[in-house]
């Protein structure tokens, strides 16, 4: 049993994508980040960065004590190695997929996240910040679009690299991106959106939370006002 501590954000969706594709037995424990549940002392014991997703594997491959993992990229790697699926099948392919997983973690996710923050959630519109992140998101979409010319997936068959990137393309309209400008990326996006496991994963998110960009001032403070000395 995989216990998934989750909220339906792009990083949360990465993990349900894998779990649904692999058919693993899992239970969702919602972590309502707007209510500050990510600061619960019990959660911080295995997710010290006060972020979700995180998992606890109650049946690790070595048969030992439960294993906990935080950070979405690390979770994908853990699950891929546990199951022997969606990562490989050879060392060269693993290296390629790892590169693109790190590209998402270090580039696409942070840049698109800041794009969404300044476009959707920021209480004041700062043109410089909006233009900076919209343009960088656009550049990164271009990198992916070029990558998909002549191939169906990022590296080899459908893999954790695709699972990592796809949820960050879902909010393309909020990020001020037009997929018609990136035809190869658009074809990949539609290919993954049509997968039954993708549909199931996003349905799970809808069961946990009905999405709304509206946010109370208290939620805004919890999500965007934290410092090292902050108390949830």
UniProtKB/TrEMBL annotation:
Residues 1-87 form the GST N-terminal domain. It comes from the Bacteria. PROSITE patterns: GST_CTER, GST_NTER. It holds the Pfam family GST_N. Gene3D superfamilies: 1.20.1050.10, Glutaredoxin. Residues 90-214 form the GST C-terminal domain. InterPro entries: Glutathione-S-Trfase_C-like, Glutathione-S-Trfase_C_sf, Glutathione_S-Trfase, Glutathione_S-Trfase_N, GST_C, Thioredoxin-like_sf. Belongs to the GST superfamily. This is Glutathione S-transferase N-terminal domain-containing protein. It comes from Sphingomonas agrestis. The lineage of its organism: Bacteria, Pseudomonadati, Pseudomonadota, Alphaproteobacteria, Sphingomonadales.
């Amino acid at each position: 049993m995989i216990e998934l501590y989750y909220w339906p954000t792009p990083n949360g969706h990465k993990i349900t994508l894998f779990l649904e594709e692999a058919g693993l037995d899992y239970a969702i424990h919602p972590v309502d980040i707007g209510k500050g549940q990510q600061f619960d002392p019990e959660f911080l014991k295995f997710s010290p960065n006060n972020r979700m997703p995180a998992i606890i594997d109650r049946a690790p491959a070595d048969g030992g004590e439960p294993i906990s993992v935080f950070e979405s990229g690390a979770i994908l790697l853990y699950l891929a190695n546990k199951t022997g699926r969606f990562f490989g099948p050879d060392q060269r392919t693993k290296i390629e997929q790892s590169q693109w997983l790190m590209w998402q973690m270090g580039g696409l996710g942070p840049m698109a996240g800041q794009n969404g923050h300044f476009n959707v959630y920021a209480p004041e519109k700062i043109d410089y910040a909006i233009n900076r992140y919209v343009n960088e998101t656009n550049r990164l979409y271009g990198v992916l679009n070029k990558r998909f010319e002549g191939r169906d997936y990022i590296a080899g068959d459908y893999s954790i690299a695709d699972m990592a990137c796809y949820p960050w393309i879902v909010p393309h309209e909020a990020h001020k991106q037009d997929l018609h400008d990136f035809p190869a990326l658009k074809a990949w996006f539609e290919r993954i959106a049509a997968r039954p496991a993708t549909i199931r994963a996003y349905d799970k998110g809808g069961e946990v939370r009905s999405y709304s960009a509206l946010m109370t001032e208290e939620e805004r403070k919890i999500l965007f006002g934290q410092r090292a000395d902050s108390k949830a």
